[in-house]
């Protein structure tokens, strides 16, 4: 009988940012850790959500027992509405995380079995595993690392974490508990690599409060503060700063409203009576007494801040003397969109303050010194950097070797490359399919590669429609085809050019036999291929061609 071993299957979040999902297996028993989503890249037109492709799970032959969640950020729970119906597993998490998941699933008409983790230092039995949630600080409430007990030793999956010496809720990362886990014996540490390229340690979340207060106090008009909707520690500091400056607070953004309601219900957010005002009543509050917390820090076109910046938010207008505070960082790839948002805000007459001007934002991820501290606390036999692009994984491994972890006790394995841990060491296992599923958020439908390809062609090369009339009974062409271009530069395809294509297409079709022209589908294909090839040969583009062959 083959010896049992630990196997790790990264379905997302390793070699990339976002859509985090890992499967840990002991023998044929397995647990899913996180089920996140990502955002589309340029060129993925009409895609709203990207989630892990879990089609390989059936082929792996694993008995899945549960989904374990480290925290409630979208890149860790956002895939649940799309993947949970296929998995149908109980979901474990901390109170805030489970409350966020419950709301997210209910929006999609789903209801899962939600189970809270046991208390501090206690473990819950899930199949052959014992799992403990270890509290860590992050930019969302109730984040945790996971300690998964196997016969070979503990797996510690850090999730997103940092060591904040003075967290807003007074609940620091459980340093002593991690040290105790190290004493017990950690066989594998899978650790967050997001900030592995940043030296030192990050500042405490508490440095943001004074900077917010100073910015708000210096404004004589309305103040709008935008941040990530899930960061309730930041929301608490924004509210505290507003109250200290004599302002009432309104909230603009459905996700923000929902998260505030959840954390208030769990007694995790403190708001003095009389502070909040409904967003529809802000016109009744003097400008110098109003602060609005708005979603849309990344320039999302449908978010509250974008509508304010373009003068499209009902009952609220930015103007001279107003201030917009960006208490957030720019997600890589969003710089151009955010710059455009800045321009719209300035056109309204308002001014901007951001983290480049004052300490208005701190990262929720551990930097190099903190990452090394985690390794020194748990003292793993083997080290596996996760959560980050390839450069982050390599930098994180270099940190491990710098503190004395032997290079052959570390491993780099991206999505689709399994990892095996046994008494002989750590090594690569079999490769497996771990791609992405594209989702159109409006229709909740998955988008296949062909649809995505067509959307990309439409966006980049445009479309040409070609209308051809054919005699139904004689199978011959009736006049010159008519072509119309959409989304194609007139310098590339002018009216004269379209006329030339039409005349040459007419000549081509007239050379075809009566049998071909009499077959509508065959005639459409001839039209499509001729026009595309003509465009490729003469203008260097391949627009989408919409052939319309009509029998008369």
What can you tell me about this protein's structure?
The chain has 552 residues and is α/β, with parallel strands linked by helices. The protein has 3 domains: 6-201 and 363-440, 4-Layer Sandwich (Metallo-beta-lactamase, Chain A); 205-353, 3-Layer(aba) Sandwich (Rossmann fold); 462-551, Roll (Ubiquitin-like (UB roll)), CATH 3.10.20.580. Helix content is 31%, strand content 24%. The protein contains 16 helices and 27 strands. The strands form 6 sheets. The protein has an 8-stranded mixed beta sheet with strand order 8-7-6-4-3-1-21-22. The model has no long low-confidence stretch (mean pLDDT 90).
Strand content: 15-25%
Number of helices: 16
CATH homology-level superfamily of the largest domain: Ribonuclease Z/Hydroxyacylglutathione hydrolase-like
Structural class: alpha/beta
Described by the principal axes of the CA atoms, the overall outline is globular
Question: What kind of assembly state do the chains in view correspond to?
Answer: single chain
Helix share, percent = 25-40%
Tally of strands: 27
Query: What ranges have pLDDT less than 50 throughout 5 or more consecutive residues?
Result: none
């Amino acid at each position: 009988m083959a010896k049992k071993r630990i196997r790790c299957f990264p379905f997302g979040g390793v070699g990339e940012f976002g859509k985090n999902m890992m499967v840990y297996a002991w023998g044929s028993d397995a647990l899913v850790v996180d089920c996140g989503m990502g955002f589309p890249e340029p060129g993925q037109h009409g895609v709203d959500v990207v989630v892990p492709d879990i089609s390989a799970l059936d082929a792996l032959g694993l008995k899945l027992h549960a989904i374990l969640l480290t925290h409630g950020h979208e890149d860790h729970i956002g895939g649940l509405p799309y993947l949970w119906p296929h998995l149908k597993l109980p979901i474990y998490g901390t109170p805030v995380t489970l409350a966020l998941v419950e709301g997210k699933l209910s929006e999609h008409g789903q209801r899962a079995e939600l189970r809270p983790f046991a208390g501090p230092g206690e473990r819950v039995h899930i199949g052959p595993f014992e799992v403990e949630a270890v509290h860590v600080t992050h930019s969302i409430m109730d984040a945790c690392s996971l300690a998964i007990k196997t016969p070979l030793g503990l797996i510690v999956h850090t999730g997103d974490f940092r060591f904040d010496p003075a967290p807003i809720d007074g609940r620091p990362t459980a340093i002593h508990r991690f040290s105790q886990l190290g004493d017990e014996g950690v066989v594998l540490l899978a650790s967050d690599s997001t900030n592995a390229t940043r030296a030192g340690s990050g500042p405490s979340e508490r440095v943001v409060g004074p900077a917010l207060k100073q910015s708000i106090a210096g404004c004589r008009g309305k103040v709008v503060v935008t941040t990530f909707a899930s960061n309730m520690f930041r929301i608490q500091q924004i509210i505290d700063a507003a109250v200290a400056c004599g302002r009432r607070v309104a909230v603009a953004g459905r996700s923000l409203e929902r998260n505030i309601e959840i954390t208030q219900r769990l007694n995790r957010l403190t708001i003095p009576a009389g502070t909040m005002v409904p967003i529809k009543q802000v016109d009744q509050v003097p400008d110098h007494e109003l602060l609005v917390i708005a979603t849309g820090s990344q320039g999302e076109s449908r978010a509250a801040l974008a509508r304010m910046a373009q003068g499209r938010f009902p009952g609220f207008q930015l103007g001279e003397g107003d201030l917009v505070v960006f208490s957030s960082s720019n997600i890589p790839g969003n710089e151009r969109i955010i710059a455009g948002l800045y321009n719209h805000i300035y056109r309204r007459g308002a001014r901007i303050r951001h983290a480049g001007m004052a300490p208005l934002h701190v990262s929720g991820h551990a930097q190099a010194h903190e990452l090394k501290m985690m390794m020194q606390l748990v003292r793993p036999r083997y080290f596996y950097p996760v959560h980050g692009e390839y450069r982050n994984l390599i930098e994180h491994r270099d940190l491990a070797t710098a503190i004395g972890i032997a290079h052959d006790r570390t491993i780099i394995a991206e999505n689709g490359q399994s990892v095996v841990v046994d008494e002989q060491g750590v090594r690569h296992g079999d490769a497996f399919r771990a791609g992405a599923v594209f989702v159109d958020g409006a229709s909740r439908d998955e988008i296949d590669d062909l649809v995505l390809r067509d959307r990309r062609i439409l966006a980049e090369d445009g479309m040409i429609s070609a209308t051809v009339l054919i005699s139904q009974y004689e199978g011959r062409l009736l006049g010159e085809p008519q072509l119309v271009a959409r989304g194609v530069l007139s310098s590339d395809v002018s009216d004269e050019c379209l006329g030339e294509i039409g005349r040459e297409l007419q000549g081509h079709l007239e050379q075809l036999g009566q049998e071909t022209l009499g077959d509508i589908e065959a005639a459409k294909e001839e039209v499509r291929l001729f026009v595309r090839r003509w465009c490729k040969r003469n203008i260097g583009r391949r627009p989408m061609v919409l052939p319309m062959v009509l029998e008369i």
